Structure formats: structure tokens, C-alpha cells
What does this fold into?
Amino acid sequence: MNVVAQEPFRAAPKSRTAPKRAVAKPAVAKPAAAKPAAAKPAANFGQIGKEQSPSPTAPREKLSRKDYEKELQKLQVELCHLQDWVRATGARVVIVLEGRDTAGKGGLIKRLTERVSPRTFRVVALSAPDERERSKLYLQRYIEHFPAGGEVVIFDRSWYNRAGVERVMGYTDRREVKRFLQNAPKFERWLTESGVTLVKLWLEVGKKEQERRFRARIEDPLRQWKLSPMDVKSFARWYDYSEARDAMFEATSHAAAPWYVVRSDDKKRSRLNAIKQILSLIPYEKVKRDKVKLPKRSDKHRYKDDLPTHRVKMVREVY
It folds into this structure.
């Protein structure tokens, strides 16, 4: 399983470096490795694109539900170990999830949180600011939700709204966007220097797959709630969002908090890759637990404790 756009020092030996026997070959291999000019622009984004997994157009073997659930269970066990470590050490973790509409942030969040405690893993999904919130400092409404010791906070969209939807839809002027892009890395460096672990993930969905998912939301009553008027307006502005994404990567992917990009056309693979990447970026350890032994139940104050059905209304057992 390949994690998309992993850190260079982790992924490079596996995905780009030729086998050891090829190193001793004449200098022919060197130009071949340095030849693609496409790797250069990616370096400006905190080396995001240096070690990419196979091209999204490359054929991928379909991941069966059985294999997916098997791998997901392993990762969710690790998330439970992470939870224990966060509680035991008082660590503070912030996970920022960004990406285009329909990229799969909600599905990823569900898999991240379904086996852990909501008191440790908190999800923050802020609605549009009201008049009072607009009078605050821009970052203030996000800082209010930051983790205390022993907590993990997952932002379903974050302060990067300013670099994305606010820029594209014209909710803020370009000067404010420029100032945000200049100041966000300073803010994030302060955050990490204060002991907070900050992980930033961008879920990248392709143009055709996004349209397919939008059309599914229009037709499926179980998904229609996901489709807002804002989503429909945004759909027409694909390249505006691409431009905003590139500018954001250029300005805000830095050593203290680089952007990690997950290709999300394949939902199953993207969820597994994203969770694995998050786990790889947090230096957690398995916390030893004392074995729990249930005590013997006492018969003291024993009485006939059958349910008093005459005092309550029972739910009809239809199923």
C-alpha cells in the first residue's frame, strides 16, 4: 500500500531509488533520475510532489471490501494506541483536512473517529461566521477550538478557507488573502514550537470523479444533504480552485508543517493512505495497560429487579 506524497526521507528509498545493483552502473542512471523537469515545481510546495505514488491514470487493482476492512481494522487499532498515548502524555494534536468538494473528507473523518472516544478525538466543522464572529480576529474562531492536553482535534476545513473558498468566491479581497498566505506559516511555526503536533492533509479528487460524485449527490436522497448552493456555484470554478490550491501550497507548505497530498479518486485506498500517513507523523508509542479483572457481583440488597413494564412505554419490536 502506497501513501501518496509521503515525506521525502521516508518514501524516496522505496518509490524512486533504483535497486542497489543499479547504483554501481555507469552514470547513465543519473541523468534518467534527474531528467523529469516536472519534479522541480513540486519542490516549492515543501517537496510535496517529489515522491509521488503511481500516476492516477495508471491501472490500479481494485481493493476488495474484505482487504479494505482488514487493513482498516489494523489502522484503527493503531488509532486506539495513539489515543492511549495522547491521554497518557498530555499531547496536543491538530489535524487539518482540506480539499475540493466531494474529495472524501467526511468519509475519512468517520473512519478516523468511529473506534475512538469523541472526548479525545474532537471534530470541528465550523459553519459560516455570523456578524459577531466576523468582528473577531480571523484565526480567533479556530484557536478557540484548539486541543487541550490529551486531545486530538480534527478540522473539517480550517483557517485555509481564506486561501480557498473565500478567495475563489470573492468573500475576501486579494490583499487579505495575500496577508493570510504570508502569516499562516508564522502562525503554524509558533503552534509547533509551542508543542502542538500539526498535520495538514489535502485530499485531491480528479475532475471527472468529482462530477460523478456531484451527480450522485443530486440523485441520491441519502446524499442530497451534502449538496449546498455553495457547492453548486463552486463546481463551475474548477480552475479557480486549482489556482488557489497551487498558491496555497507555494506559500504555506513549510518544514514545520508541510502539506501532504492524498489522491482520493479511490475512496478506500485514500482513507487507508491518509490514516497511515497521519499515524506515521505522530511519535506515539503503545501504552502498557493493566489487565482488567471483573470483580464478583455482590448479592447484598438483592431484590426482584424485573423491569416495571407497567410504569413505562415499551418500544415496539418491529425488527
Notes: Confidence is low (pLDDT under 50) at residues 6-51. The first helix runs from residue 8 to 15. The chain is about 45% helix and 10% strand. The first strand starts at residue 92 and ends at 99.
